Amino acid sequence: MENWSLFSLCVLLGLTSRWAVSFHSYSGAGKPPMFGDYEAQRHWQEVTYNLPVHEWYFNTTNNDLNYWGLDYPPLTAYHSLVCAYVAKLLNPEWVELHASRGYESHSHKLFMRATVLFTDILIYIPAVLLYCFYFCDGSSKQKVATALCILLYPGLILIDYGHFQYNSVSLGLALWGILGLGLGWDLFGSLAFTLALNYKQMELYHSLPFFCYLLGKCIKQGLTGRGFFQLAKISLTVLVTFALCWMPFLSDPKQPLQVLHRLFPFGRGLFEDKVANTWCSLNVLIKIKTLLSRETQLFLSFALTLLFILPSSLKLLSKPNLWQFKLALVNSSLAFFLFSFQVHEKSILLAALLMFFLFVFFHSMLPLLVKDGLLLPYVVTSLAFLFLSLYLLSHLTRTNEPLFWYFPFHFWFSLVAMAVLSFTSVWLEPPAKFPDLFPVLVSILSFLHFLGFIIYFNLVQLMEPQRKKSQKKTN
Amino acid sequence: TVMAAPVTNDQSWFFALALGVSFLKCLLINAYHSTDFEVHRNWLALTHSLPAAQWYYEATSEWTLDYPPLFAWFEYGLSHIARFFDKEMLVVQNLNYASPATILFQRLSVIVADVVFFYAVKECCKCLREDKGKDLLGKPSFILTVLLLWNFGLLIVDHIHFQYNGFLFGVLLLSIARHFQNRHFEGALLFSILLNLKHIYLYIAPAYGIYLLRCFCFTQSNADGSLQWRSFSVVRLVTLGTIVLSTFSVSFGPFIGQLPQVLSRLFPFKRGLCHAYWAPNIWALYNIADKNHLIVCSYYERVKFKLLDINKLPKASMTGGLVQEFQHSVLPSVSPLATLICTVLSILPALFRIWHRPNGARGFLRCLVICALGSFMFGWHVHEKAILMAILPLSLLAVESREDARIFLILSITGHYSLFPLLFTTQELPIKIFLMLLFTIFSLTSLKTLFRKGGALLNPLEATYLLGLIPLELICEFVYPLTVWQKTFPFLPLMLTSVYCALGVTYAFIRLYISLLTCSDSTKKIKTQ
């Protein structure tokens, strides 16, 4: 069968699972007064449509920042504005200033879900297809299998189409950035990544590898001459993109400061859910939250993060090639406990490990998903993904050993542990003394895995085990 | 005799496909379900709460039991498991009860019952003549498995709209597979069981009857394929008869006293010529031809309900139905008897053909498909879901012969498209489009690759017709609702869909007939029994 048909079948399967998951509940459904992320996104449409730009990030009578104030960079705000225009066409009640708070209806849910699907199809899915087509080694079968696995990754599906977010936009733009760099179109790559950064500030987690790779590449080309010229072009692209995105906010010096203040709420402490893994686990042993002052906590987390990403970034700076770049991305985001999807087909064990890693990350989101009423999609998609990736992996590696012996025993042990934990989290009541027992256990388990991963991947990147000559043209 | 396909060492792909589609079905648990959901809940309730003697008299709900007794026993068995999910669903008075546990149980029961279908598909793969392929994706057994397991019609009718067709078609395909494998007694038994599960399969009973009589009761044919009267085996006939009769007596036995009541429930002829949504058959074309229907259309009456309230929908199932009197104005009115005569006339040539020159099991299968299609084309109060009865068995033929692949493509794409009105909610719109594209792209590309020698599979006219479905869908579901005619003629898109698809179905029917009547002599290589 031709490639295009196989790829379109993968895309259709991915789209079907996405839309089927969207039938289920979303974050904060039916839970006044604050609701959840879904309401936050709706609220941003309301705010951006009805208020002038200079009021978006400020606390005014019309804009109560305590009720889901904007805390993403301007591109998200523009996106919400566009959605709001469409919403106004369909049903003005959805974005009525103040009156539409907590608005919930079946047709509104359809609209919101449709906006996610639209951006997914526009940005994320083409990036995945191009990535698999151009940057995966192996036969066309392996490329299609990779595409299928990526498209069916439950984490993104459940967060975007279940909980409700627009991660596919920022991740898609970041992926376009990676694609650009991989194809040698540094300017395009920088542009795409800058846009990603201006969509969600979490992309900062990936920024260091991008920076180091590009800088290292320019240095290699000679800082006096071509390299310098290249560096200038890239910097210019980035600065112009930033300027364009922030243009409405540059008229008044107070504006950008306020936006930054919203984006990086150091006042609240750096203990958002995303970073909760390490600290949550450590908190069990030593009560860090109460023991250390807020500034110390901040400093500690910053220092540790920097410590973890420094080796990998320096290595990338010295050796700017694609393989290093991909690994640095993994390490960098691991250092920030966020997933970075890479499918390394170079060493299948690495691919297996990455699949496993993705799965562990997904599992760590269990408490959140259960709270949102997304247990059924969680079970189905994770089982499907696990089964599919294991099946495809075993078939594409052409080993004769049964799958069981191919993976080390701790892989199976971890899977069993995760399954048991998922089961107990849902079906058993935690003891009264420790009401948060199960979410904490999930976090600890995930944390241990992540720690193992980051050590392993750093070792791989720094030591560069022997690679076969036939693979990978260095860039 | 039929050669079994060489058994491959690695059958795990079958398991992967089956598991994959089951996962998809699980994700659809929360999707829209039609009134058929309530129908089956009601049957769970009444078989559980009432003694068997009252099953066919119970009429608290409007969805009375109108499947044969074996299906009632099946529901009875299910109800014992249902107890552990939600006892309230088993109370007959709880009309339209649909708690999350109820939905979960009912959906899971359909998914689990599909295991029968999986087994049947596996058996059918064994019956393929040859199973060579350069790689897995090009093997006929792989293609057949996907065409059956991931069949679009089955997915949306069973797992969204809600019915138990997977289970029933599993029994049918298993029976066909048994005939291919020359295990005729089992095949006959399975078919009798099937008739007692859902009597709509009476449509294809003539094919079974003629085939078994001709190829099984007459044990030998002459060299040129004609009948050898002296080889008639009374023993076989009697055994077959015993099998059928005993099945029926086990099924109807407990209800022998109330037979008229049971039969009146099973065959409610007080319904109209066309179902609420016109099946794309001859009568759709007939109605269009009759001028009066464009204006004074009781179709409008029925569709009007759709605008009011989702719960007041016209019943989109085999059960129930509004009393409709179709009065054609220009053309003669059609009565149930007339449709019966038309149906019988349409399938008679096929029956004669396999009596005269049987083509082994494949001829039987072709005749079966023609019987199913014929009764779809000319039957009384046909539901468009019945097109599946022709599409699914035809898949078996499609992976073996070029001409059949062509007919299959036309029939399946138009037939599946005609099922679109079943899912009219906005939420399910992307799902049905994605799944339809999935199945269509797969069937087109895989069959094209399978039969790549010999030019294009579809001629330009056929391809244009099929492509025409895209603008049709855009008009009916996207453009038309925004126009001013939506309020005055809301039935128009449905009518357009039925008529457009009726053309394709009729074309497929004619081509299938031609292939039956012309091809058999070239198959001397296949020894008949």
Question: What is the percentage of strand-forming residues of chain A?
Answer: under 5%
What is the overall shape of chain B?
Answer: globular
Helix share, percent of chain B: 55-70%
Helical fraction of chain A equals 55-70%
Structural class of chain B: mainly alpha
Q: Which chains share the greatest interface?
A: A-B, 30 and 27 residues
The whole-number mean of residue pLDDT values of chain A reads 77
Q: What is the terminal separation of chain B in angstroms?
A: 6 Å
SSE ordering of chain B:
HHHHHHHHHHHHHHHHHHHHHH
Question: What's the mean pLDDT score of chain B?
Answer: 84
Task: Write down how many β-strands of chain A occur, each being a DSSP E stretch of 2 or more residues.
Answer: 0
Uncertain parts of chain B: 1-9, 294-298, 301-326, 521-529
Give Rg of chain B in angstroms.
Answer: 23 Å
Radius of gyration of chain A: 23 Å
Oligomeric state as shown: heterodimer
SS content category of chain A: mainly alpha
Q: Give the overall shape of chain A, derived from the CA principal axes.
A: globular
Q: How would you sum up the major sheet of chain A?
A: none
Largest sheet of chain B: none
Number of helices of chain B: 22
DSSP summary, beta strand count of chain B: 0
Write a structural description:
The complex is a heterodimer of chains A (475) and B (529). By secondary structure, chain A is mainly α. Chain A is built from 21 helices and no strands. Chain A has helices at residues 3-21, 37-50, 74-90, 106-135, 140-151, 154-164, 167-183, 186-199, 204-220, 226-246, 254-263, 276-285, 288-291, 294-318, 322-335, 348-364, 366-371, 375-396, 403-406, 409-427, 437-463. In chain A, helix 2 (37-50) packs across helix 3 (74-90), helix 6 (154-164) packs antiparallel against helix 18 and helix 16 packs antiparallel against helix 18 (375-396). Chain A is globular and about 60 Å long. Chain B is an all-alpha fold. Chain B contains 22 helices and no strands. In chain B, helix 8 runs parallel beside helix 10 and helix 15 (360-378) runs antiparallel to helix 22. The radius of gyration of chain B is 23 Å and the shape is globular. The N and C termini of chain B lie close together (6 Å). Mean pLDDT of chain B is 84; it is low at 1-9, 294-298, 301-326 and 521-529.
